[in-house]
Automatic annotation (TrEMBL):
CDD domains referenced in this protein's UniProt entry, alphabetically: PBP2_LTTR_substrate
UniProt KW Signal keyword: no
A GO CC annotation given for this chain: cytosol
Keywords: DNA-binding, Transcription, Transcription regulation
Domain HTH lysR-type positions: 1-58
Pfam families, alphabetized: HTH_1, LysR_substrate
Protein name: LysR family transcriptional regulator
Similarity field: Belongs to the LysR transcriptional regulatory family.
UniProt-listed InterPro entries: HTH-type_LysR_regulators, LysR_HTH_N, LysR_subst-bd, WH-like_DNA-bd_sf, WH_DNA-bd_sf
GO MF annotation: an example: DNA binding
Amino acid sequence: MDLRQLRNFVTVAEQSSFTRAARILGVAQPAVSTAIKKLETELGLVLLHRQDKRVQLTAEGQELLPHAKEILSRVELAESAMTRLQQLGRGEVKIALPGMIGSYYFPALLMAFHHRYPELKLSLIEAGTREIQSMIERDEIDIGIVIDGDTQPTLETIPLTKEEMIVACALDHPLAEKESIKFEEFLEHELVMFKRGYYHRERMDQMAKTHNLEPQLAFETNLIELIRSIVRQGFAITTVLKMVVDNDPQIKAVSFAEPLFMDLHVAWKRGRALTQADRTFLDFLLEQRDSAKSI
């Protein structure tokens, strides 16, 4: 039994005619008859009743037909998937990442990737970790950058980097003189924080609950530059990834007494086959990660 025989059989069954089937398949009618006769011989079953110019399925033919259609459909899907994998030159990768990561960790990586693979299109979406996880599950994006993604059973993840969360305050803020800050001290001051739905905010809320303390929330925003501006002017303090304020001379970064870290992961849907474009982007990220570790 081969695919050509099954394709001939399905077409004849659908058309109830060898002549029409041959015309659709673009072959001579005897070739169709021969292929089906060979299939019947191999199976040891009669699949078609041949009555004058009409053809009808036998009981055995009716049993085989849905299986044959399923096989041909799966082969077609496989061929389409392989074609997509070969079409790297026309590929697109849809990526979602949190604002802090997108603004401070990824720009150089994305530019380097574009320089190496100018034919590939990168579509970027900014969202919080929870929303990114949902977008992956809904197949709205190909790859996401998530925090602590290894805890999600619906995702395939690979560790990307670990970044410290620090306290960010103005240079003349009382906390700026400290070498480290206890979490309880941090919560004694007015805060500017991300809105709910971002892992960063959830982590702070969870820690506040653990310490039975209520954060003094003065501002809520997901705009990184607005957060930095509020902190510079001394209106509030915040906690962000250290990379966000590393090169800002007007903001002091102070570690927590018990250092906090965020583990960043590259994630995609478990069980979903990556396209060649997705795999190329993923391999590039891991190459850059490993290069950074070796420095």
